[in-house]
Amino acid sequence: MYQFDWFVLPFAVGLIYLMIALFVTYARWIKNLPENERKKVRSGLFSIKSIFAVKEVFLESLLHRKVFKVNPLLGYMHMSLAFGWFLLILFGNWECRIFYHGHLSPPYIPIFFRYFNPHPETFVYERFFALLMDITLLVVLSGVLLAWTKRMYSRFFGMKKTTVLKPGDKLALTALWVIFPFRFLAESFTSANFGGGHFLTGSAGTFFANFLPTQYLAYPAWWAYSFALGLFFVSLPYSRYMHIPTEIVLIFLRNYGVSEKKKFSTFTKVEINSCSRCGVCIDQCQLTNADIKDVQSVYFVQSVRNNNVNSEKSLNCLMCGRCDAICPVGIDIASIRQASRYHQSIQKENSFSYINDLGVKMADVIFFAGCMTHLQPTILKSMVTLLKASGECYWFMDEVSGICCGRPMMLAGKEAQARELIAKNKAMIVASGAKTFVTSCPICYKVFNEEYDLGIEVLHHSEYLLRLVEDGKIELTSQHQKAVYHDPCELGRGSGIYNQPRELLAYSLKLQSVSQEARQGLCCGGSLANIKINNTDRKKITYEAINLLTENNPDLLVTGCPLCKKAFAQLSPIPVLDISEVVSMSLVQKKYYVEMDEGYQSAKHVESFAEIQA
Amino acid sequence: MKHVLVIGGGVAGMEASVRLSQMGYAVSIVEQSDKLGGKLNRWHSLSPDNSNASDLLGKLKSQIHQGIHKHLNTEVLSVIKNKLHFVVGLSDGTDLKTDAILVSTGFDVFDAQKKEEYGYGIYDNVITSADLEQIFRDEDELKTTSGTAPKRIGIIHCVGSRDEKAGHTYCSQVCCITAVKQAIEIKEHLPDSEVFCFYMDLRMFGRKFEDIYRDAQVKHGIQFIRGRLSEAFENPDGSVMLKAEDTLLGKPLKMNVDKVILMVGMIASAKTKKIKELLNLQIEDDGFYSIADTHYESTKSSVPGIFVAGACTGPKTIENTINDARAAAIQISEYLKQ
């Protein structure tokens, strides 16, 4: 018969309640996954994928490697709590196993080991475990201390803002904050009464015994410890700490290939419940530059969880994906936001029946400019120049009139309308017999690449132009200007194209790097995904982005998106060029922007690179 | 004898100087360029009477006599205010003591390259209203880049005005009537041409403006299309395809024209921003100077002893600029008599 005392009940009841609650919740979610996703889970379960998942759980859920990368102090806080607690349980169980000669013991025994066996002199490893447990407890306590500090002074953690709490969170948070201090006190008092403990609890026990009646305090302290644990377990499913077990489920599902869909799914539930609300996404969000403070991903995810997403949270977002890039849990926030837009919008069909076909031309290569490129005639001219120079047989599909690619509709959640446009465009592309589809707009690129299923290669013009250069179809001259390349959101984070534009630009310019680039690239502020923001706020975002991009005083700002170019050109003190313009200028001398008047006055056109001051 | 410094020698600055001088004050004008007259130097004819801009300029200049001290090619470098005076340092080395300052830094023409989708500076056959005045002034003919007379001309209203994306939400006042005036002038030069004006709405607020607009339609056959230009596209032959929506018909529209004229608006001048810093003046969101009272003290700035006149407090016709300058002269004289 194992040792028992009534004080273990709050812990035991809490633990049983938590296990049942988690089992019921997860079983329901997994049951509600669509059949094909369940199939992925079944086939993944006994494959190497599970091993990858276990590795990821260890690195992310316990060690919090990604949080460390973003912010070492915040990372240590999460690691000391998660990994420290894990080690306490692990070492506790280990100690128990050895102590009881390999017999299994009920889960409360390792947790309250010191109460039942304060100073077992017969136990050979007593000193070793006392030391080990004290070290681990100290690590956890340091994490608790940091958590207290963070709540009160988030700036110490390099964070401008931290999250706002709900009542359920406050209860769980309070319980979590007192669990380990109570354990510390309980073990210290017990050590004062019976000996045992090491440098931490042992010394603290001796210290407390000087002025406290520890013989009366030890037992209530064990009750308090057990009660805090029980309270934490019971409140966990209703608080943000649900993220602790759920992140593990998420990691496994993700490794099995389950992903977000166009509508909310049970995977969405797993994702939103995995959010620890660490708040890393708040500072990352460029809307904070325009003082927009209540729509950031952490709040959006919270509103999805509470079933009260409003249009502001859903639509006041640039969809730049910077929060996705930094999220330590790797939640696919952009897809969830996109799905929320789908649920909010009214789906209509057949609204574009009046659009006529444009007339198909047979060609090897199709060039699709898109509406945004049409607003930037210099890009059009450059692309036509380059296509002609390459000698390829091309069709400028939307030269005179064009059909929208469908992406703006998608971003507004209008799936059915987008599908109609996609069908019309697709029919023409297929009929042309082209083998390569090129677009100079990353917004178009993303939708052609992901939604059209064309069966031919879809290239961003930077990829295509790079190929032309590598194949020797066009030749570039090297220039001496220093340039910064800005990663458009839809091209970089949206489509994973970071290197090709840089490789291409390196043929003609000296590329500088900036602190915020590639996966951390900035949104230009022009994003058409945000249908709530006003122009003044957009300009604040653009202005801040330009300041960061020009931090090393480049001669030129180069981008690969006509919308980004348009946004930057309004406020930039240096010339802003599309990548095709740079290539075209390196090929044949053309007219371009340069030289700013003071302030916001715009750049003047010049004839060539020679006129851009280096 | 009390002294007034006038910053900016355009229409407002010239007229105010003359009036102040007549009232018996010593006046100095600081002008950044090499001649007085400001933007009027670049204009050919004026609405609504089609009078010559150079005639008006001559009239204004003829009144500027020896007693008015001119500092051409000069900038204001520093201003210090003591109890009695402003001490102003000029780039020509002069240090002036003055009792009052009139700021008449005017406007800048909106840079049409900022609306890249209209193709100014990219498509050769796209010009601005200011360019067209220059052509008329030089007694040149309006020609396409291939040297032929344009058969179809598109005139685009509100370029850089009433345009939130361009950063200027206000109306520039003079462009609507200028468009009508230039359309008629084009028809007079090229009777066989077709002229189309693309407008959002026509603001014919001045006396006789509406009559001229009517004549443009009835007598000259100029066509007015309600719809803002969305983008311009250059055809291989150099002609320009305009894409817009005819909002009266509710249909998208495409039109090929041989020449496009952009009616560029007025924006606060770069000088306005500079002088604002030197004098601690306030400007509003539109970039123009704040005034003490819209109705009653439209030429008084936010700083005692400093006055403002002309287009530096918002777009104005020449008529209103001249009246503003005279009002400023009276207000300055009242201030100096205190």
- The number of helical runs of chain B is 7
Largest interface: A-B, 25 and 23 residues
Rg for CA atoms of chain A: 30 Å
Distance between the termini of chain B: 14 Å
**Count of distinct structural domains of chain A:** 4
Across the major sheet of chain A, the strand order is 2-1-3-4
The helix content of chain B, as a percent range, equals 25-40%
Proportion of strand residues of chain B: 25-35%
Q: Which geometry of chain A do the CA atoms define?
A: elongated
Strand and helix order of chain B: EHEEEHEEEEEEEHEHEHEEEEEEHEH
The multimeric state of the shown protein is heterodimer
- Which structural class do the helices and strands of chain A define? alpha/beta
Descriptive overview:
The complex is a heterodimer of chains A (about 625) and B (about 350). Helices cover about 55% and strands about 5% of the residues of chain A. Chain A has about 625 residues and is of the alpha/beta class. Chain A folds into four domains: about 240 residues; about 90 residues, Alpha-helical ferredoxin (Fumarate Reductase Iron-sulfur Protein, Chain B, domain 2); about 100 residues, 3-Layer(aba) Sandwich (Rossmann fold); about 140 residues, Rossmann fold, CATH 3.40.50. In chain A, the strands form three sheets. Chain A has a four-stranded parallel sheet. In chain A, strands 6-5-7-8 form a four-stranded parallel sheet, with helices on both faces. Chain A has a two-stranded antiparallel ribbon with strand order 9-10. In chain A, helix 25 links the parallel strand 5 and strand 6. In chain A, helix 1 packs parallel to helix 11 and helix 3 packs antiparallel against helix 12. The longest helix of chain A is centred in the N-terminal third of the chain and has 28 residues. Chain A is elongated and about 90 Å long. The N and C termini of chain A lie far apart (about 85 Å). With about 350 residues, chain B is α/β, with parallel strands linked by helices. Chain B has two domains: about 170 residues, FAD/NAD(P)-binding domain (3-Layer(bba) Sandwich), CATH 3.50.50; about 160 residues, FAD/NAD(P)-binding domain (3-Layer(bba) Sandwich). Chain B contains seven helices and 20 strands. Chain B has a five-stranded parallel sheet, with helices on one face. In chain B, strands 11-18-12-13-14 form a five-stranded parallel sheet. Chain B has a three-stranded antiparallel sheet with strand order 6-7-8. In chain B, strand 6 and strand 7 form a beta hairpin. Chain B is elongated and about 65 Å long.
